Write a sequence for this structure.
């Protein structure tokens, strides 16, 4: 039976599109079937793996297509940091060889479920792999929020944004806003206020069974999900975030620990870390 590998590419950069065509050729030359992925959900019965050519934004587009499936995603980084990606363009031949030999492992990542209940009784929900970003609406100067954890009030403050991130998203927007880096194998959610006017407005890390609530006490907000989808949350809305029902599978080609990935992706200075040690 022919094995089929999905290919999804950044679609607005000629160099990346040309590289994606090269990936398709390499896959087919390896005796596998390559199928370009359109927008929309994929059929998990057809695909063994999805190869993504682009940056983290393109990988998040693939995550949307593969959500609620068992199809792993393998990113080839053509972006700047590419934290979700597994390989660089220079390693394409090795990547294709690993795919041919099924030489990869699967990293299962937590998602969050986001529910917005409005004052008028209307209701919407969605999900995110990185974060739910609760941001001030276009006419608001700041949002006024009441924060709760496990159905108990915790804090109130004005701010520009409230982020609720997964461990995967802890190295994205939340990290830029001063939130902690959380290892991917830690099941947790991180709440990070952005530009808050309050004495107690520090990032919080809660367990996977916790329920985070953000009540919009004043002003209208927009909830951005991975920077790709939005839900309106006008004044009086309650936003509830819990652990997501479905997980996202990322294919890994090597066993580099997460600390090594941090050092490589962020170019962290580590010279002298072992200075003076004999081992």
């Amino acid at each position: 039976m022919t094995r089929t590998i999905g290919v999804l590419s950044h679609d607005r950069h000629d160099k990346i599109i040309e590289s994606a065509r090269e990936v398709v050729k390499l896959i087919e030359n390896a005796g596998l079937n390559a199928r370009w992925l359109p927008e929309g959900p994929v059929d998990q019965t057809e695909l063994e793996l999805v190869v993504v050519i682009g940056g983290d934004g393109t990988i998040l587009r693939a995550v949307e297509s593969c959500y609620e499936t068992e199809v792993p995603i393998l990113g080839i980084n053509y972006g700047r940091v590419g934290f979700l990606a597994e390989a660089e363009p220079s390693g394409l031949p090795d990547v294709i060889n690993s795919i041919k030999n099924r030489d990869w492992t699967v990293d299962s990542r937590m998602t969050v479920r986001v529910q917005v209940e409005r004052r008028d009784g209307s209701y919407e929900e969605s999900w995110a792999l990185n974060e739910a970003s609760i941001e001030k609406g276009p006419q608001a100067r700041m949002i006024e929020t009441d924060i709760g954890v496990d159905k108990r009030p915790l804090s109130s403050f004005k701010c520009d944004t409230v982020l609720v991130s997964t461990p995967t998203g802890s190295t994205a927007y939340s990290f830029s806003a001063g939130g902690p880096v959380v290892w991917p194998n830690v099941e947790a959610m991180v709440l990070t206020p952005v530009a808050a006017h309050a004495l107690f407005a520090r990032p919080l890390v809660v367990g996977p069974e916790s329920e985070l609530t953000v009540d919009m006490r004043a002003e209208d907000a927009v909830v951005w999900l991975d920077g790709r989808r939005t839900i309106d949350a006008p004044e009086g809305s309650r936003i509830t975030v819990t652990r997501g029902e479905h997980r996202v599978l990322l294919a890994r080609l090597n066993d580099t620990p997460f600390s090594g990935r941090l050092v490589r992706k962020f170019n962290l200075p580590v010279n002298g870390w072992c200075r003076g040690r004999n081992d």
